[in-house]
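INFO worker-7 received task bundle
INFO bundle size: 2
INFO processing item 0
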Amino acid sequence: METADLYAAIAQAAARTSLDWWLIYSVIEQESGFDERSESGCGALGLMQLMPSSFPAWSRTSLLDPANNVKLGSEFLSECIAIWKKESPDEMVKFGLASYNGGSGYALAAQQAAGAAGQDTATWASVEPFLRQIEVAGKRPDVEQIADYVRTIWTKYERRRGHAALA
């Protein structure tokens, strides 16, 4: 995919989902390093590293199509952010990133654990430490991966947002 085509796909996805252009860009940068043929060890595919099991109606070829991958990944990211309704807009994005990376079940369980401990449940910084003590469906989260993912993308996104999108 040519750079201009990638930027156009991000712009279309941003317009469709109301996500900031730089947020989508930052997720792609973190997920695949802009390698449209990227495949992780666990089978995630393409620019936004989509799991085929999360998109059963789509073939592998469709998930590897860069424009389709950005479209589907941005829609999924938007859904992950929309789960968080009581948090501030910035915190919604942080919780959404955690949900995109590790699954919303872990973020929700950590938030519940923080609340049970009398801690602030509206900020990712207060909730993230509780990832270490939760389990969902018999599984424990990869705490460092989720925490690093949110921190890395948020840092890049916060620095870039408000600037003109690339064209």
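INFO item 0 finished
INFO processing item 1
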Amino acid sequence: MGRMVILLSMLLMGAMTQSAGAQETYAGAPVSTLVRVSYPDSSARFQPAPDVAEILADAKDASVVYVSGRTSTTRPSAKDEALAFARAAAARKYLVDRGVSPLKIMVNYASATDFVADNTTPAGKLENQRVDIELVYVPMY
């Protein structure tokens, strides 16, 4: 019981060295990486840029993956909600097809919200028509 309390205390302090012979020391909080993939108007075809695809190639090692589909519309509608969902679902399928466990993927979608750019310009709308993918890596103690 005493060893369990010490181990738990070490985990709660956020730092622990592995047992003798281990090569690594883990410490600190989870690390996350966020990537964005923009979509042309009315499209749900997931096509990450080469640099994003390279980052996503390691997604199977993430502890959890958050996928958020968005649109650039200013008023929510059933059609735009379906488009936001289709974008998130396409990104999820891409990840699962590349070995990410579907149990690790959390999907969220919404239209007419969460703008990251000025939605009154064509360039801003393109940035807002997107999927955000956050890869969260939790240190293993």
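INFO item 1 finished
INFO post-check item 1: The beta strands are 15-17, 25-27, 31-38, 64-70, 105-110, 130-137.
INFO post-check item 1: The radius of gyration is 19 Å.
INFO worker-7 idle
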